Amino acid sequence: MDNVTPLGGDVYEIDTRMAGYSGITAGYLILGDRPCLVETGTSTSAPVVRDALSSLGVGPDDLATVVVTHIHLDHAGGVGDIANYYPSAEIVVHEKGARHLADPSRLMASAKMVWGDKLDVLFGTLAPTDAARIRALGDTGTIDLGNGRTLASHYSPGHAKHHVGLLDSLTGDLYVGDAAGVYLPETGDLRPATPPPDFDLDVALGSIALFTALKPQRLLFSHYGPVEDVPSTLERSAEELRIWVDLTKRARAEGLDLDHAVAMVRDRTRERYAALRADEATAEQFELLSGAPSNVAGIMHWLDRAPR
């Protein structure tokens, strides 16, 4: 299938075709004795993911585990649908997100407030998952991939309070979710992901430091794809966070409202990103991946809670 890319080590990147776009959200299948899907994508992506798994020989009773880095709808919106497709799979999530997968009503209500009419088009509806099938992770945990291979889970908040990074014992791949920002392979751009309500700069920087200490061989971004230059990429992740926070602080100090703060930050960071100087489709894709309004709103929310 044209949306499946082998990455070596029995790992396959799946373009979930979020909202019909390519290159927005990746899921990853780790094949082996106990096949594991990392990230489901959105609810509307679930049939795309199912077809990709089928093309790789994974049938309804073959998938052992579904694990999500966090419960935002672009990563976990398809959990309920995927759980229905694969009745033998255990669903693994951090303990702070588990109840929202069992009963998504509050999560969907808050998403509706943020996204309004765009919600159905971008994400669809997260279906509930039987609580008995959900395994809640603490600050660390282990997922059995078979033959002694494991995914080690490491709590990594800052982007979201229910976020984990996942380290593959065989390949050294680290599934970073959104904790290291979003990466655009076409241009090599890296930009932070700092949405409300959970963003916290100090906590986010701590998670990036944890990722560095884990010494992964490769970073697998949910947005989007593999990156092999690990140390400098994580350094850039931290630098991007600091730049966006400093600029938002400046806008706040000048008394700008949110719209004007977004405009200022967008203007002053524009030169950092080749994507915004590329064709219109690439620029649009980058804004979908890491929108300036969401980023600035999240930083503002953090500044309001923790005056500096």
Automatic annotation (TrEMBL):
Cross-referenced InterPro entries: Metallo-B-lactamas, NDM-1-like, RibonucZ/Hydroxyglut_hydro, ST1585_MBL-fold
A Pfam family assignment: Lactamase_B
CDD domains: ST1585-like_MBL-fold
UniProt domain Metallo-beta-lactamase: residue ranges: 24-223
Signal peptide: none
Top-level taxon in the UniProt lineage: Bacteria
Annotated protein name in UniProt: Glyoxylase, beta-lactamase superfamily II
Species: Microbispora rosea
